[in-house]
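Dear colleague,

Following up on Tuesday's group meeting, I ran the structure prediction for the two-component complex that the binding team flagged. I've pasted the input sequences exactly as they went in, so you can double-check that nothing got truncated or mislabelled along the way. The structure tokens for the whole assembly follow below. Feel free to forward this to whoever is handling the docking comparison.

Inputs:
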Amino acid sequence: MTEPVAEPLLHGVIAEFVTPDGLVAACKKAHAAGYRRMDAYTPYPLEEAADAIGFEKTQVPLLTLIGGILGGLSGYLLQFWVHTMAYPINVGGRPEHSWPSFIIITFEMTILFAGITAVVGMLTLNGLPQPYHPIFNHPRFTAASRDRFFLCIEAADPKFDLDQTTQFLKATDAIDVAEVAD
Amino acid sequence: MAQVPETKPSATLERLLPGQSPVLTPGHTLETITDKIVSIVLRRPVTLGWLGGFALFFGLMNLLLFAMAYLFFRGVGIWGINIPVGWGFAIVNFVWWVGIGHAGTLISAILLLLKQGWRNSINRFAEAMTLFAVACAGVFPLIHTGRPWLAYWLFPYPNTMGVWPQFRSPLLWDVFAVSTYATISALFWFVGLIPDLATFRDSATNPVAKTIYGLLAMGWRGSARHWKRYESAYLLLAGLATPLVLSVHTVVSFDFAVSILPGWHTTVFPPYFVAGAIYSGFAMVLVLAIPIRRFYGVQDMMTLRHLDNAAKVMLGTGLIVAYGYTMEAFYAYYSGNAYELFMFKNRLLGPMAWSYWCLILFNILIPQVLWIRKVRLNPAMLFCTSLVILLGMWLERFVIVVTSLHRDFLPSSWGMYVATRWDYAIFAGTLGLFFSAMFLFVRLMPMITIFEMRMLLPQSKLSEEVAAHD
């Protein structure tokens, strides 16, 4: 009796393009055909590719705003608390709550918190650092950080069908279509 | 399926004036840009020239360590400072180094927001320059405290002594401004590096290099979703860094302007300090860029256009600085205050007058050669002018710090300031720290932003029928 051979797990089907035009046209076509679980890979930021696969809004600006507000508040409140409650010092009879001299540190803390939130937020939402991703199993994928553009329709997509999706991608401007193992 | 189409080498996107160089010399493709920048680090052998230069500056850096060790052993008495001049070289050098850092942020953040595509090839090493300059600057207030091992007292933390820092003091504002500036500059630099580190990871053949660049790239794969969040975060950082950089030298100038000392107590200080910072920073950018583009053969990416533009920025900021000097004189006269007037006369004619007249010569008169187009397009002359400006900007801080302090209100309290060999050793040592860090940087990291250079290619843009929204 032979063991049933397990199908190798599939991450998706990947298509390679030489021009940004070919990639974006294919992305638009795939989105129109109803594919949703897919991603485009480009060697430089190409906003149209993200729009074409239906990713139009990021949370990064909102997070940054919240970080900035928290930073500003904590900066001001720290100074207010130190100079009126924790350790009040009378300097030349001036008021303890001398708000104009607190503005600069409040400003710096706003920038500091907002900046850290923007970077940490961007990395977290992107799921980075990520030690392993199946897309790197594609032997030609190193070109994505050089001069080539890729579109990968993932096997997790409800509309995914190996033969149909491969045929679909072959009908675009792709120069190479291949399966990517998970 | 389509066949591999031929990749056309680039033409140039811009409309050029007669005789103007393009930002990126035509003839590049996505591939050649990547290869050229990657090969500087990953393929080029270490040359004797690099080793010699690095050894020289590394030696100077060791002089810094030695001088600091002796300083910690003996105390700040080894310097030329004493009452009335308590702020000597340490503060002069601090202000000078922080100022140099400003050009890096200006190039990477403000010019990004203003959509100046020419910044793309010089922003990476200018940001590195910012980081290293801020590191050199940070040394000075620390060692000037006399007890650097207690420097953490500057930060607000609950402590057993039950005391808190004085938040109304400009010196504490400075702590927050400079440490925020260092943090945001480091983040900005590192975020910009991530996609290029991924390129390095994918191009490296040496397994150790591949692993290190791979770890630093954190698994970046160029996903369209990632790029979208990345661009959003990068633009936000630029937007945050822009007011930050203007605030940093403003706060540094408050260290002076908030006091009531004649020569320091002036409202023109913040804008003219910021302009001066950018002035000296661009001079340092040129001092670094001119040899780099020659030795690494990247004249096609850092073209004469970049040198020309940087020279124009220097000319403009230099004129703002000249306006600042004029206003200082005018305020002294218009204040009608005997101490202000004396301070200014003493600056022009007193025992330190040589420093003021050298300052006018180096910072205002000589840089006027930048009006001449031939000078702006001649790397050697531009290099020399930049050195003169760097020296001039150092003298500016010397004049502000020393000539204002050495004549106190009462003649019985007057004094003189003479720097000692330890003052010079520590200053030279920070130059060693700065340049040895730059030497390492050009050999270990992509000194030109690869992904932003790709965006300068005409073939990186979508054609109109594809870009059209349907």
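Chain A touches chain B through 78 residues (CB under 8 Å).

Cheers,
M.
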